[in-house]
Amino acid sequence: MKYPLSILTVFLLVINLQAQEVKKLTLKDALVYALENKADAKKAKLKVENSEYQIQEVRSRALPQITANGSLTYNPVLQTSVIDGSAFGQPGTAIQVAFGQKWNSVGGVTLTQALFDQSVFTGLQAAKSTREFYQINDKLTEEQVIEGVANNYYQIYVLREKLTLLENTFKITEKVRDIVKGQFENGLAKKIDLDRMNVRVTNVTTQKQQIVNLLQLQENALKFYIGMPIETKIEFPNTEFEMTPLALSEAPNANTRTEFLLLKKQEELLNYQKKAAIANYYPTLSLAANYSFIGQGPEMPWFKKPADGVYWSDFSSVALNLRVPIFTGFGTRAKVRQTDVELRSVQEDIKDTQLALDLDYKNANTQIENSIITITNQKENMRLAEEILKNTNNNYLQGLASLTDLLDAENAATEAQNNYTAAILDYKLAEIKLVKSKGELKSLINN
To answer: Where do the coiled-coil regions begin and end (predicted)?
Structure first.
């Protein structure tokens, strides 16, 4: 039994290792994964696919419509008609005559073809715009997914930097605490100094645990944003986010933005919808053709012959149908006016969106410039704070600085590093907004 148990143990171990496999996730990897797996991105592509079926539905109205029909009728009581008896040699009398048979069965094929229907022609013109609308919507959805994932990814970066900072701070604080403890045990430090260092160690430990919890929540949020199973283990590469040079002076053309193009395409579709409503004023012309067989007799006519009293015959017809609308109770006019109101509303949205897109670019541009200044200042401030901390630490060890001075210098260094990290985050978020305002969010995948 030893060998089967060993094999089973190895098998379970392999499964466990596979389950614990860690997936490395760069920003590009996260974006590509999101576009392939996020429900919003998938649904947008399904809408593009569905638009093809909508186009086929509209196109079908211009094609011949062929239907087969059949019926079986039983008449328990035949209707009688009263006719002049002179036709039967009985002038001056009225005779009741029953027409028809107890059983009737009809089967045939009918073909109809629209020859002129303005609403059909307008629908065919709108078909291409419908496809383009959903294609633009798909692109907009991708951009929204990219923006959300990138923002979340940078938030994780900041938390990871804060965690690294707290881990370094904890090591330094713990080292100083051990020194103070040794001094206290040798009678060279006060009990209050050791207590303050113990409090400091506990505070840093608590802050570190809070960041660990926030980081876990943020990573779970990122998995949700990209459509990844929450139980998946992920790992982020240890890379610095650099300030990439951006063309701040090149003002984008708002007319090329996806949001603007989507509204313009919606305006185009509403124009077609208005034309389709106006088309109800036009006459329609259609061709109809029918070819049928009818069987009549005193018995159910199926599978029966003249010998059974059942007679079958065929008949056909060809008709040209003209429909001219004269008065619809002002319903058509109301529909046209409703569409016109919707069209004017979208035109106002277009104007407002154009202003909003220009505003987004200006604000992102300003935020980028301010962030660069802040990063430069905070980087120098961080260098000075670290230098002060180093000197203060040396002075403390030599008895030239108090514990309060050391703790203040440590807090100042931590705050400077946090401010620098926050400045980097502000820059990266502004960078996303700027890239978005220029309609180049997909460039984040290519970097």
So the answer is: none
Query: Are 355 and 385 members of one domain?
Result: yes
How many secondary structure helices (H) and strands (E) does the chain include? 9, 8
Which strand (E) or helix (H) includes residue 73?
strand 65-74
Tokens of 5: 């148990």
The answer to whether residues 298 and 367 belong to one domain is no
Query: How far apart are alpha carbons 302 and 74 in whole angstroms?
Result: 12
Q: What length does the chain have?
A: 447
Domain count, the chain: 2
The H-or-E segment that residue 58 falls in is: helix 39-60
Residue 165 and residue 413 in contact, taking contact as beta carbons nearer than 8 Å: no
* The domain boundary residue, chosen from 324, 344, 379: 324
B/e letters for 96-114, b = 16+ CB within 10 Å, e = fewer, are: eeeeebbbbbbebeeeeeb
Angle between helices 118-185 and 403-437 (to 10 degrees): 170
DSSP run (H or E) holding 35 = helix 27-37
Q: Which of 289, 284, 278, 324 is nearest to 114 (CA)?
A: 284
Cα gap 27→29, rounded to integer Å: 5
Report CA-CA distances (Å) from 94 to 99, 146, 375. 15, 89, 111
Q: What is the pLDDT along the chain (447 residues), one digit of tens a residue?
A: 445 545 555 555 445 544 457 788 888 889 999 999 999 999 999 999 998 898 888 888 889 999 999 999 999 988 888 888 777 777 878 888 888 888 999 999 999 999 998 888 888 888 888 889 999 999 999 999 999 999 999 899 888 888 988 898 888 888 888 988 888 888 877 889 889 889 989 999 999 999 999 999 999 999 998 999 999 898 888 765 666 655 455 667 778 888 999 999 999 999 998 998 898 889 999 999 999 999 998 888 898 888 888 999 999 999 999 999 998 888 889 999 999 999 999 999 999 998 988 898 888 888 888 988 998 899 899 999 999 988 998 888 888 888 888 888 988 988 898 898 888 888 888 888 888 888 888 888 876
**How far is CA 245 from each of CA 123, 249, 270, 422, 428, rounded to the nearest angstrom?**
48, 12, 42, 19, 12
110: CB partners within 8 A, 6+ apart: 66, 67, 68, 69, 288, 289, 290
Question: What value, to the nearest 5°, has the Cα angle with vertex 285 and ends 284 and 288?
Answer: 135
Query: Which residue is associated with the tokens 């996260």?
Result: 30
Residue 171 is assigned to a structural domain of this protein: no
In sequence order, the β-bridge partners of residue 65 are 112
Do 33 and 134 share a domain, yes or no?
Answer: yes
Q: How many whole angstroms separate alpha carbon 378 and alpha carbon 199?
A: 28
